[in-house]
Amino acid sequence: MNMKRYRTICNSILLMVILTWTQSCSLVRDPLDAYSDVTEGVNEAGEYVAFRDKAAVVSHLQLLYNQIRDRQEHWHLDYLLIGDAHADNAYAGTTGAEVLPFENNAIDGSNSVLARDWDRFMEDVGRANRLIVYIDSVDDTSLTTAERKQYKAEAKIFRAMIYFDMVRLWGDVPVITTVAKDITSENIEEVYPTYFPEQNTEEEVYQQIEKDLLEAIPDAPANNAGDKTKFSKSVARALLAKIYAEKPLRDYNKVIQYADELAADGFALEEDFTNLFGMNTEQTDAKKRNTTESILEGQFFSGNGNWATWMFGRNLINYNENFTWAKWVTPSRDLISAFQREGDDIRFSESVVYYQTTWSNYYPANNYPFMYKLRSAVSSIIKYRYADILLLKAEALIMKDSPDLNAAATIINQVRARVGLSALSSAVRGNKTSMVEALLTERRLELAFEGQRWYDLRRLDKVEEVMNSVYAKDSGRRAQVYPFNEYSYRMPIPQSMLDQNPNLKQNLGY
C-alpha cells in the first residue's frame, strides 16, 4: 500500500477520534453518556458489554434470522438476477442501467447492485461476528452453556451462508471473524487493518466456511420437519455438500456423504412438485410450507408480506399491486424452448406464467412471460432445498475419479419421474459427456429461477461454451457487449469499496 496514502487515512481517522472524544471512540456504535453493568456499551470497570442479558442475545439472534426475510435485495432479488439473468435462463427484465449489464455482460465495478450486495453482506458478517465473539462473556446465568453453544452455532451457519454467496461472486474477499476494537491515538497502527482488511484467497474463504459449518453441526438445532426456518444441522450439511462440489475444496465423496446425511435427516423429494411454490385453491395462502425437501426457507404470512414478488411479477393476493413497471428476471426464449424440448409441462407451468402488461421490452405486451416461483406476498423464499443437493450428488457420481453413471442416472430419473418425464436413454447413461449434459439440463429445469444456473455453469467450466453461444440462438437477448472468458467467473469488486479500502484489489479483467 502507498505509505503516503496510508498515513493520510490514518491521520484522518485519528483526527475524527480526537474530535469525537479525547480518549476513545467507536466507529461501529454510538457512545453512551453513562454506563452501568446492565447497559450495553462499557461498564464501570471499562469493559465492553455487547449484550446485557439473555434477552439481548436472543433478540440479536432473531435479527440474523430476520435478514432472510427482511433484507431481500441481496438474499433473493439480486441472487436471482445474477443466477438466472446473467446466465441463459432469463433476461434482465428492465432496461435499467443497474440490471441490464447482467444480461449483456457489461458489468463493471460501478454497478450499484454489486455495491449494494457487498455492503450488505459485510453488514451481515458483522452481525454474526458480534454474537459469536461476545456470547460467552454475557453475564447472565439464565443463559445456559448449551444455549450459548447453540446460538453461536446458528450464527456460524449464518456467517457461512454469507461467505458462500460472497466467494462465489467475487472469489478473494476479506474473511472477518472478529469485532474491530475502538480506535485510539495509541492503537491506531494496530487497529487500522481491522477496519481496512485485505482480501483472503478464494481457498481461504472456503476453508473458513468449512470450519464454521463443521464446528456448528454438533451444537446447531436438529432439523424440525414442522419448521424449516432455522439454521439447523441440516442447513450446515447442505452447505457442506455445496462447498465440496466447488473447486477450491472439491471432494466428491464428501458431496455424496452430506447428501446422504440429509436423507438420513428425513429429507426427500416432495411427491407433488406444485406443493413447493403453489397457492391454495382459494388463492389466499401458500399451498404448503415446510415441505419434505425444503431445507431452509423464509416464511411469510398475511400481514408481513413478501415484497419481492413486486419485482418479479404479480402478487396473487393483490393482483394489481405494484404492476405498473417492467419486472426483473424475465424468462428467456432459450429457457422456454428447453422446457418445450423436454415436454416438461409441470415444471414449466410452475416456473413461468403469462400476463398482459403495459410494456413490451422482450415480448408482446398481450402475452408476456414472468418467472412464477414467487407469486404472492405469502409465498416462501426457499433458500436451500433437497432437489438441489440430490442433483449435486448425481454430479459427484458422474465427476468423481471412478464414475458411477448408473447411480447418477437413477437420481436424475427420480427427479424426472416426479414431473412425469421419461427415464434417460441407455445411450445417455453409458456416456460421461452425455450424462454431464443431462445433469445440467435437469438442474436447469428443476431449479429455474432459484438462482442456481450461473453457478452451475461456473462450477463445471461451461460459462464460455454456453454463454457465448446463447446470444446467436436467443432472438430476444440484448446484444452481447463483451465475450465471456476466464475472467468472467468472478464479478468485479465494487469500485466504491476499492475507494474506501486501499487494501482491496480489483479482480482481473475489470
From TrEMBL:
SUPFAM superfamilies: TPR-like. Residues 1-26 form the signal peptide. Its main location: membrane. PROSITE patterns: PROKAR_LIPOPROTEIN. One of its GO terms (cellular component) is cell outer membrane. This is RagB/SusD family nutrient uptake outer membrane protein. InterPro entries: SusD-like_N, SusD_RagB_dom, TPR-like_helical_dom_sf. Residues 367-510 form the RagB/SusD domain. It is found in: Cell outer membrane. Belongs to the SusD family. The keyword Nuclease does not apply. Transmembrane segments: none annotated. It comes from the Bacteria. Keywords: Cell outer membrane, Membrane, Signal. The lineage of its organism: Bacteria, Pseudomonadati, Bacteroidota, Sphingobacteriia, Sphingobacteriales. Residues 99-244 form the SusD-like N-terminal domain. Pfam families: SusD-like_3, SusD_RagB.
